[in-house]
């Protein structure tokens, strides 16, 4: 019975760890999307400036 309780606690700990990692991954993915959008905006502005300078 004692081993079952230990195993149950270990399973719950690993489950909580997995949930935490999943939440961190979601935040990381959101940050990647945000930075990608910022980069796209900067590249678009850079291209606009190059075209304007070429005129």
Describe this structure in words.
This protein is rod-shaped. The longest helix is centred in the middle third of the chain and has 53 residues, at 2-54. The model has no long low-confidence stretch (mean pLDDT 95). The protein is mainly alpha-helical. It is built from 1 helix and no strands. It has one domain (1-54).
Mean pLDDT: 95
Distance between the termini: 81 Å
Counting DSSP H or I runs of 4 or more residues, the number of helices is 1
Shape: rod-shaped
The helix/strand order is H
Unreliable stretches: none
Please give a quick description of this structure.
It is built from 1 helix and no strands. It is mainly alpha-helical.
Keywords:
55 residues, 96% helix, rod-shaped, 1 helix, single chain, mainly alpha
Q: How are the SSEs ordered, and which strands pair?
A:
Elements: H1 2-54
């Amino acid at each position: 019975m004692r081993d079952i309780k230990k195993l149950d606690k270990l399973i719950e700990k690993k489950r909580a760890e997995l949930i935490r990692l999943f939440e961190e991954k979601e935040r990381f993915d959101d940050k990647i999307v945000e930075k990608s959008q910022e980069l796209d905006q900067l590249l678009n502005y850079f291209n606009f400036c190059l075209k304007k300078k070429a005129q």
